[in-house]
Specification:
The chain has about 550 residues and is mostly helical. Helices cover about 70% and strands about 0% of the residues. Helix 4 packs antiparallel against helix 6 and helix 14 packs parallel to helix 16. The longest helix has about 40 residues.
Length: about 550
């Protein structure tokens, strides 16, 4: 899918990748390696915040304040994370299908939504800080620190939003190296900002350093995406807000946003439970555990994201066979990486914790919590890639219901229930603090079991986001007569991409159950004679539709 002119090594490295061709595990590895490094960089600059604050004159009280603020921030961030999810799915499938106009309209409409949502959060955020901090029983000694951190974070939320949206676009097109490069630059800026600001300004310095670094990263990502115009069209026509595209992005993203938002509310209620213990050291230990756990989870999270992009592009290109092969190889790679990373985290965890704070009692408590959640690292090696396939196919509804059931309802019931049992039994080994983390493990196990059944029997196999009239290579659709030509794409029809195993002369590729003779597969309500199904407002005689709207996701054979 690369442009016709020959590219140098670095130019190829930092350019979009067609994941519907080549050896699956190599494509996944080339995407996942920078993703892992990028997540490492992300964890690093979060860790630097913690290290600098923990070793500053503000002590672990400020450290606990930053940890307590995060669930509040995530409630509002859920809205744009949902939009980012919908964006990534559409970009991957349009890119895999080589649909320039659809990809351009997706980018333009996502930009419009990014601006709108950022302004909304910047305006609404400050008004809900006090009610939310009071709702989670924030300790009096932490309250002012939390409020300061959140107010500054809301001020710079636009940079965070734009980076995630445009970074998701780059990953959807298979370019994870550029996102990595920008994140490394941002990490260095954040570290420098922390060192210069935290000792003097405390948590306010942490927040200012973070939003500045995120803003720089956002600008870099936007410039990179706009430099890739050979892969999409972006004219005044595309910049005009399109209700159908916005509806499709929101339709894909809202389930993820709802899941994340409710999960964040669940975390707030668990935080309320933790705060009710009245132990600021345990609050700090909870924050440190999440930091260290982030490093151990990086490989599986990265492989899951790689699998989502891989599945999206291959489904867009009609290569379901590669999706199944890629998943098996992705799971084996995840297990191999975790077999190395997991023991390292457990062995060198105490050394890592000493970077955060010299408080030995706090470090011992934290390591005890890490040992409880360690078994989930192996479980996620299987569940994360499977969930990546489901989301990459465009099924965000099933993960939403599963998330509500396991990460929210089950998590709250077990957290409060296990703590009550420990308190009534007067347990000395399985204390109420440890029971909070045991409830997390229980929820993850159930989540993994449900994920397996969703992958095995779920609706994702019958979904495809960009399902224009006729589809790629069929009469009346992109790749049929007069279809938009992608740089370097060979002919299927004139200007249309060629699919492995497709017959010559622009005939439709064969689908299971399709009639013989190269006819297009029948759709419910389609006219007789193998004609393409009619869409409202579609032009006659195989002309290319203007794509003024995106059709709803439809089931295909």
């Amino acid at each position: 899918m690369e442009p016709k002119k020959e590219q140098g090594f670095l130019q190829k490295l930092f350019s979009p990748k067609n994941m519907s061709e080549g050896t699956p595990w190599k494509r996944l590895a080339m995407f996942a390696i920078p993703q892992i490094l990028g997540n490492f960089a992300q964890q690093l600059y979060n860790t630097v915040d913690t290290i600098v604050v923990g070793n500053s004159r503000w002590g672990y009280t400020a450290l606990a304040a930053v940890g307590s603020s995060f669930p509040v921030l995530m409630v509002l961030m859920a809205l744009f994370v949902g939009v980012a999810t919908g964006t990534g799915i559409m970009v991957a499938q349009f890119f895999g299908a080589r649909n320039k106009e659809g990809l351009g309209k997706t980018i333009a409409n996502c930009t419009i939504m990014t601006i709108a949502v950022s302004v909304f959060i910047m305006v609404v955020g400050p008004f809900i800080v006090d009610p939310m901090l009071k709702a989670i029983n924030t300790l009096p000694e932490l309250y002012d620190y939390c409020k300061t951190y959140l107010l500054i974070s809301f001020l710079g939320i636009g940079g965070n939003f734009a980076y995630n949206i445009y970074g998701g676009m780059l990953r959807g097109m298979g370019d994870s190296f550029s996102a990595l490069g920008f994140l490394l630059i941002t990490t260095v800026l954040n570290i420098i900002g922390d060192i210069l600001l935290v000792e003097r300004f405390g948590v306010a310095g942490v927040a200012f350093a973070t939003i500045f670094a995120q803003a720089v990263s956002a600008v870099l990502c936007i410039r990179k995406v706009l430099s890739l115009k050979q892969y999409f069209t972006l004219t005044k026509k595309e910049w005009k807000p399109d209700g159908a595209y916005i509806k499709r992005i929101i339709g894909l993203g809202i389930p993820s946003g709802i899941t994340m938002g409710l999960s964040s509310i669940s975390n707030l209620l668990v935080t309320r439970l933790i705060n009710s213990f009245g132990d600021s050291m345990f609050i700090a230990a909870n924050s440190l555990t999440m930091r260290v756990d982030g490093y151990a989870m990086m490989p599986t999270m990265s492989m899951g994201m790689a699998m989502s992009t891989f599945a999206g592009q291959n489904i867009g290109a009609g290569r379901m066979d590669r999706v199944k092969i890629g998943l098996r190889q992705c799971i084996f790679m995840s297990l191999g990486i975790t077999a190395v990373m997991g023991p390292l985290v457990l062995m060198f965890g105490p050394n890592l914790l000493r970077l955060f704070t010299p408080e030995q009692a706090l470090n011992d408590m934290t390591m005890g919590l890490i040992y409880i959640i360690a078994p989930t690292y192996v479980i996620n090696c299987i569940s994360q890639p499977m969930m990546g396939v489901i989301r990459g196919a465009g099924d965000t509804i099933s993960p939403m219901w599963m998330g509500i059931g396991t990460n929210i309802v089950l998590r709250l019931i077990t957290a409060y229930g296990f703590v009550a049992l420990a308190k009534n039994a007067g347990a000395t080994l399985w204390t109420q603090e440890r029971m909070v983390f045991l409830s997390m493990v229980f929820g993850m196990v159930v989540n993994a079991i449900i994920t397996f059944f969703l992958y095995k029997y779920g609706r994702w196999k019958n979904l495809r986001i960009m399902n224009f009239a006729g589809g790629p290579g069929r009469p009346g659709g992109p790749g049929g007569p007069g279809g938009p030509k992608f740089p370097g794409a060979p002919g299927g029809g004139p200007g249309g991409p060629k699919f492995p195993g497709a017959p010559e002369g622009g005939e439709a590729p064969k689908f299971p159950g399709a009639p013989e003779g190269g006819e297009a597969p029948k759709f419910p309500g389609a006219p007789e004679g193998g004609e393409a199904p009619k869409f409202p407002g579609a032009p006659e005689a195989g002309e290319i539709p203007e794509a003024s709207s995106v059709p709803e996701a439809q089931e295909h054979e």
